[in-house]
Design brief:
With about 120 residues, this protein is of the alpha+beta class. It contains two helices and five strands; from the N terminus they run αβββαββ. The chain has a single domain, classed as Trna Endonuclease, Chain: A, domain 1, CATH 3.40.1350. It is about 30% helix and about 40% strand. The protein is globular and about 40 Å long.
Length: about 120
């Protein structure tokens, strides 16, 4: 496995652990339907939380939030819509972002942005 893939996997593991410690139920990890993908689907209260995880090495100068582009938001909204339809869920949906900066569990800094954005009013297909 390439180093960036391994780092991403470690980051998603840490994000799932973080969510569980903070009272979330992790329903799915790496949910896929065709080309749509959701890193983590969690639940808290009456909401389904769609979580995008961005992990970067400690020595990079790139902010992981820079990867959350309008195209990424469209992809997340489309994936969330597909997930909700596929599972026939009546819950509210919330979009969260978790960034992890660090090379390992010992030096990683986790930032959780709850309710990071609202889906655009325009419907995507």
């Amino acid at each position: 496995m390439a180093r960036h893939n391994l780092l991403g996997q470690i980051g998603e593991d840490m994000a799932a652990e973080y969510l569980i410690k903070n009272g979330y139920i992790v329903r799915e990890r790496n949910w896929r339907l065709n080309k749509l993908e959701i890193d983590i689907v969690a639940e808290k209260g009456n909401r389904i939380i769609i979580v995008e995880v961005k992990t970067r090495a400690l020595n990079t100068m790139v902010n992981p939030l820079d990867a959350i582009t309008s195209a990424k938001i469209r992809h997340m909204v489309n994936a969330a819509n597909a997930y909700m339809r596929y599972n026939h869920l009546p819950h509210e949906v919330q979009f969260d972002i978790i960034t992890i900066v660090g090379d390992n569990r010992e030096n990683a800094q986790i930032t959780h942005i709850s309710d990071a954005f609202r889906p655009p009013l325009r419907t995507y297909r």
